[in-house]
Each structure stands twice: as C-alpha cells, then as structure tokens.
C-alpha cells in the first residue's frame, strides 16, 4: 500500500494510532486536532529543530527507514542535551513522495518511537506533506533543569573562560568513518556504520554536567573543530587541543589508520558532547558518569578564535581538517 | 551574494541579527546556541508545525519571498488560533538550494517578521539545510488561555454537539480563487491573489471565542467541507450547511460566477475560522468581534459523518466539491 492509497488523513490517523501508546499524562490534546496541548509547570522551556533531507543528509540505499526515524529524533535530542535540557515533546514533519510505501512509514515511526522511548520523548504532533524527496523535520520541546536559585541550569556556548578544560564524551570520528564505509558498500551492521545510522547522544551525562555546574557545552554535529570553533568565537578565546588525546576507537584506527585523526577532527555527526569548564568540575563529571569522558585540551587566549590542534611536542598541526558546512559549495 | 558565499554559519549569524530586535523579555537564549530557551509560567502549552514545499504549496514565479515568509508563519498561527491559543515562539527551518540569493532570504525574513509582529510571535531558532528545492517548516509554540477554574480554554474538534450552530469568519473561497488567478498570470496585487499569498487568520476572534466558551473550532486550510468533515467524524455527527448562507465576497462572485460556491466549499487555504457551539454563545461572539461572523449551518445526527450542503429548499446538493488531500494522487 502506498501513501497515495491512504491519503493524508488516513496516514495521519494511522500515525496517531501508532504513537497513542506512548503519550504522557501531561498531554491534553495529541495528534488529530489543530495543535498539541500539554500541561507544563513553571520554569524554562527549550526548543530546537533539525531537518534531514534525502540525498543531502542520508541516502535511502543505506539508511533504513527505522534508522532514519531514530536519527531524525536523536539529532534534536543531542541539541537539547547540549543545553543540559530534558527533551519532552516532539512534532514530526514528514515530507515524502506520494508513492512512498506505507510500510516504510511504519518502519520510520518504529525507529522514531524507539528513540523516543530511550530518551523520554513523546511524539505529539506534526505534519505530512508531499515533496519530491523524503525530508524529515523534528521540532523538539523540553525543559531546563532548575538550580537551587530558581535559575535554569544551562550549558551555554558563550560560557567558556580562559583556563577551562575541554572534555569530550565517547569516541570521535566513528560516525564519519561509518558514512565512508556505507558509501563503500559495507553493510549497515558494520559497527562504525551503526554509529553513523543510530547516534546515541549522551543525554544523562549532559544532565549531570549541568547539575554539577559545568558552564559550557556543545554537541559534535559538524565536526569537533568546527563546533568548538563556535565556542571559541563567541567566547573570544582559542582552544588548544592535544591531537594524541583525542579519543579514537580501536575500530576507527583499524579501518582508517591514516585518516582517523582527520575524521575525528572534522568528520561530524558524532553527536557526542563537548564540555568546557573548570578542571575540578570536569573531573567531578568524569567521576559521576558511566560515559567515557576524555580531557582533550583547554581554552587559551588567542591569537584567533579557532581551535588549534597540537602535537605531542606542543607544535600546531596545520592545516587541520575542517568541519562540514551544509551550505557552502562542495 | 549567494547562500554558498556566506555559508551556513554566516547565514545563521545574519538571520540572528535580523530577528534580534524582536526578542521578548522572557527569552533566555535565542538563535546561536544549541536550542532556544525561554521562561514560561505554569499553564498549558500548545505546539504545531507546518511545511510549505516549493512546487507543491507555492511557486516562486508568483509568490515573492516576502509572501512566503508571511505565509509560512501565518498558517501555523492559524493552527494555534484554531485551538484558541496564543502563539509565542517560532522555530523556522529553511531548506534551500545553495545558489539561493541571500537577498531573497532577507526578504523571506522580512515577511516572517511582519507576520510575527502582527501576531506577537518571536523567531527564536531554527535550522538551515541544503535541499534541491525551497521548503519552509515553522514550528510554533504558544500557550492556552486559562479559565477561572484553572483549565485551558480550548477550541476542540471533538466538542461539537447535536444542535450546535456553525459559523465562519470572513469570506470563503477567495484564496482558492486567488490561486487560480495567479496560475492564469494575473499579478500578485490582485485582491484575491493577495488573500492567497498573505492569509490573515482571525486570531483575536478565536481568542474571544475560547474565552466566551465556544467549545469547538477548526481553521479552514483544506477546504470548508473537508475541514468540517474532521469535526463531523470525530464528533459522530453530520453538519447541514446552507449553500446560500456561505459568505462569498463580491470579488469572488465577480471573478468566478459559476464556480464561486465550489471554491468556497472545497478550495482551501482560507485560514478563516469555523466555530461550532450553542447558538447563544455564537451570537455573543458575533457581537464581540470586529471580524464578520456568518452562521452557515448546524450540527445534525447522521446519516454519515460528512457535511451536507443544502439548497434554499433544504435539498442536498450532490456531489459537492471536495477539499484538498495533499497526499492522494491528483
């Protein structure tokens, strides 16, 4: 059965039935009315949105519909994690050709719901529109954790200071390596490919970081150097990173021995967290989380507001591999 | 200058500067971090999302970028109006080809901000992605009005009851007529075309309706009969509409004398409001608003859960023109 057989409203009813099991008590009105409505306590709300476009962000040859559903939500979860926030409610817009198989949409929702269950997110609304290629937009709303002073506990990009240490969760570069392997025709059950297709942002660690008072955080979506560059620019500092400290997985080193560092620095889509803060606080975080946390450098005065990659002797490696800018000519 | 000259981050900085003048006091973090953050009071939140895809929902030959910006936000405002809610914060995702002119994006944002100023909405975040054609997704978050009992004042699709009267704001069919004229090459300053390109949802009237206790409302996006059909189906009722009561503008009658009724019933994109409630309450609403409100029928027991269009003698007109289903084959 194709989407065109079911029609927009038939499809929406089907999707509403799919997610109805997951709905939280706070929800007043879910899918099927003009807007979703939920009860919220006083506090600070967070909202973010991300889009995955077929042919730009994924290819259906190698990303299953279930993978796509997972990833579409996970990348937005990563954004809220990068603020220290708790994701709660998602609106999902599916743009698709009318000849899309309804079974594919079911698979997409299966991945979406799995990710939602993992991270405590309910799909409460969205839109279904026709388009020449598949595109998914997730808008995710959540709330901030609140400190004893009633203020929100946020990981802000502009809160890096001179002398702060820089730490990163998990491995870097596996996702970019996985993308290469998928392009080379290696199947999706390859461990590196799985990292690319089903990113797992370390949400709990981000929450702990915000509660412990880590001031600054960003997720690694466009590549470590590019993302850390945002922190540098907005904080008016540079970041000195030790190349030999970057966490490279054994799989990455084995698969791309020559390029593992470049993939770790510029590959992107890791959806790991970078934390920047006083060394004592970052040490406490490392002691408080099950995720691996690796200190990779520290914030320095300029020159320039971009991260510098240093070798073991302290000399700058140049040029360093750059990140991913979605809109520049490639 | 093209988007590819500026790059994703250059473009985002430009957009952030554009909207920075409009930001409300409640906003804690706006564009430029991983997510937007704002302070919210206890209560009920609403969220909706809508997408406009080039070639499906608009054509750049006749919709200016400023029109597109206006409409992208207005259609989501209409959804929140249709719940009786107050729109507050928007996340705007722009999918576009890398050769898009930056000046066009500026125009898009001009239209977006004009609409935001009209309806009290601040753009606080979003995403910019590459795509083969332009698509805009707006996610809009707002709040419900609260009654004396602390409960949200909502216009719900499932709240229509036997004997309730059905009323509609403004004119019906002008937008569909405007689309026809644009297709026929008539310029965008045509009054009907302007209705199509810059819809003006009657938000204030929807607020008054919710406060007065009108129980049921829906906006006319896919065509009166189709949208009212959702109310019928979910309420297990039919709706008897008097064809000669439908509000048809003089411009519509003059431009499409033979088809004005069909355009009013099935054209869609009117972004007017349909209210359904006890006649006394609907009368109070008519007395309390500057928008024209026309009673067009009432809710009846079946057979069937679709609206029926009746002539002056009370006979059913059949077939009636149907609405617009985005995903069925056309």
The biggest sheet of chain A amounts to: 6 strands, mixed
Mean pLDDT across all amino acids of chain A: 92
Uncertain runs of chain A with pLDDT below 50, 5 residues or more? Answer: none
Oligomeric state of the chains in view: homodimer
Rg over alpha carbons of chain A = 20 Å
Protein chains sharing the most extensive interface: A-B, 74 and 74 residues
Form type of chain A = globular
Q: What level of helicity do the residues of chain A show?
A: 25-40%
Contiguous helical run count of chain A: 10
Give the beta-strand count of chain A: 14
Roughly how many Å apart are the termini of chain A?
38 Å
Alpha-beta content class of chain A: alpha+beta
Order of helices and strands of chain A: HEEEHEHEEEEEHHHEHEHHEHEE
Report strand % of chain A.
15-25%
Spatial order of the strands forming the largest sheet of chain A: 10-12-9-13-11-14
Describe the structure.
With 330 residues, the first copy, chain A, is of the alpha+beta class. Helix content of chain A is 35%, strand content 25%. Chain A is built from ten helices and 14 strands. The first copy, chain A, has helices at residues 3-19, 65-81, 102-119, 174-183, 191-197, 203-212, 224-235, 250-255, 260-266, 279-288, and strands at 27-29, 36-40, 43-53, 86-96, 122-130, 135-143, 145-146, 152-153, 165-169, 216-219, 238-242, 273-277, 293-300, 308-310. Chain A has a six-stranded mixed sheet with strand order 10-12-9-13-11-14, with helices on both faces. In chain A, α1 (3-19) packs parallel to α3 (102-119). The two termini of chain A are 38 Å apart. The model of chain A has no long low-confidence stretch (mean pLDDT 92). Chains A and B meet through α1, β2, β3, β4 and β5 of A and α1, β2, β3, β4 and β5 of B.
């Amino acid at each position: 059965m194709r989407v065109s057989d079911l029609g927009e409203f038939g499809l929406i009813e089907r999707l509403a039935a799919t997610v109805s099991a997951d709905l939280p008590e706070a929800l007043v009105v879910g899918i099927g009315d003009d807007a979703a409505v939920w009860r919220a306590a006083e506090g600070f709300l967070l909202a973010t949105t991300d889009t995955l476009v077929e042919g730009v962000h994924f290819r259906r040859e190698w990303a299953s519909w279930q993978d796509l559903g997972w990833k579409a939500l996970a990348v937005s979860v990563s954004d809220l994690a990068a603020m220290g926030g708790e994701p709660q409610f998602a609106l999902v817009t599916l743009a698709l050709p009318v000849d899309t198989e309804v079974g594919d949409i079911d698979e997409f929702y299966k991945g979406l719901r799995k990710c939602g269950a993992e991270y405590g997110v309910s799909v409460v609304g969205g839109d279904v529109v026709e388009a020449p290629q598949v595109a998914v937009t997730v808008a995710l709303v959540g709330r901030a954790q609140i400190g004893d002073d009633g203020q929100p506990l946020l990981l802000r990009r502009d809160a890096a200071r001179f002398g702060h240490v820089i730490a990163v969760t998990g491995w870097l570069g596996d996702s970019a390596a996985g993308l290469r392997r998928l392009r080379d025709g290696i199947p999706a059950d390859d461990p590196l490919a799985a990292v690319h297709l089903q990113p797992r942002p370390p949400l709990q660690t981000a929450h702990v970081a915000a509660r412990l008072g880590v001031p600054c955080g960003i997720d690694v979506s466009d590549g470590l150097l590019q993302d850390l560059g945002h922190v540098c620019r907005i904080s008016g500092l540079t970041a000195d990173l030790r190349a030999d400290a970057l966490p490279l997985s054994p799989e990455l080193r084995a698969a791309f021995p020559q390029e593992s560092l470049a993939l770790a620095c510029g590959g992107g889509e890791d959806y790991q967290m970078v934390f920047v803060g006083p060394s004592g606080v970052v040490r406490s975080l490392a002691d408080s989380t099950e995720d691996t946390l690796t200190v990779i450098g520290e914030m320095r005065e300029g020159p320039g507001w971009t991260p510098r990659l240093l070798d073991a002797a302290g000399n700058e490696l140049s040029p360093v591999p750059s990140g991913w800018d979605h809109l520049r000519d490639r």
